[in-house]
Amino acid sequence: MHLKVLGLNHTTAPIEVRERFSIGKAALRRGLDNLDSYDGLTEAAVLITCNRTEIYAVTGGDPNGLRQFLNDLIGATVDEKFLYELDDEDCTRHLFEVAAGIDSLILGEGQILSQVKEAYSIAKAEAATGTILNTLFNRAIASGKRVRTETKIAYNSVSVSSAAVELAAKKLGGLVGRSALIFGAGKMARLTAKHLLAHGVKKIFVANHHLERAVDMAAQIGGQAVAWEEAFVGAADVDIIITSTGAPHYVVKPRQTQQLMTRRQGRGIFFIDIAVPRDVDPDVGKIKGVTLYNIDDLESVVEKNLQARQQEALLAKKIIAEDAAAVMERFKYLKFQPLMANLSERAERIRLREIRRVAGKLPDLTDDERKVLDRMTRRIVRKLLRMPMMKLNASAGTDDENFYAQAVRALFTDEVTNVAQN
Asked: How far is CA 394 from the centre of its chain?
């Protein structure tokens, strides 16, 4: 068996590619529920964020099973040039770095840890994880928390939402007294609203397909909810439009934007699209008076505090290396658990059979004598198995592991399969 991660992120694929990999939770759950139909896949968890889509899996057998699983999830064949694939130790280290915020577009961003937790929770709920991924994700989440506790990598960090607001402030020469319209009422939209207010924005309008959610968010931030269909009518007077809806298609299109610009009578407007898939049709940016940025344009903003965070990242990587090494050491022994369990179960069956046989010949045994016999035979079995178990464990991760695994199978169990095939 091998531990693998297959995926793409902001370093390997532009947003127009990444947005095609945004998989809805219902489709994700269906895919995980159908995991048994893919040859060689025994465990899987899928991590999806605005900057990455990754499948963590325990594989064996057909090497194409993992790729087919990914293709089926997105409903298309993936271009290999955008993908990366990491095995075993590299896969482990990668997840630990992701959970710690080391591998993020914005170094040290805090939201990723909760996204890793959610990915694991969904996979576990669909019974798609087992001993290996349960161990991997629990240790990665614990390591991510440790990094945030023992380093300052998250201090003064810039989130996607705050980076978007900082970009707007930079391009507009400040936000004090300005007004904004936010499409969306989810977590990212709410964080964006808070950053806008902190920068002095005087009025925030909130539009959402479900008006009650817009009303709830507006109440929390002191803004004003607007019906989705009427949002662009009120936008004639706003300075900034930020979109974060999670819709699978464009919600801002050229025609309605052109009509908006006509009503604005030549006054420019600033769009920031922080959704993946994108909310704003790229052709909107071609309209006179419109300035459009998407999530890939935010990278320059994060340079401000990067140097301090990079120093903390060095400390974080030491923690990650230590924690990843510990979990890899654990994995060395996990592969032998089925074999050792088989050996113990076989020995226990033999012990119980012989006790029953002796008890049949000694019907006058008292309960105390039966307990003495039971304890004595347990100790004999334990001592007989001690050396094979020790040799097997000591060989884990060495060139001798196949030799000892084959020897134990041949001498003590009914199994004959080479461990390298498992």
From this structure: 33
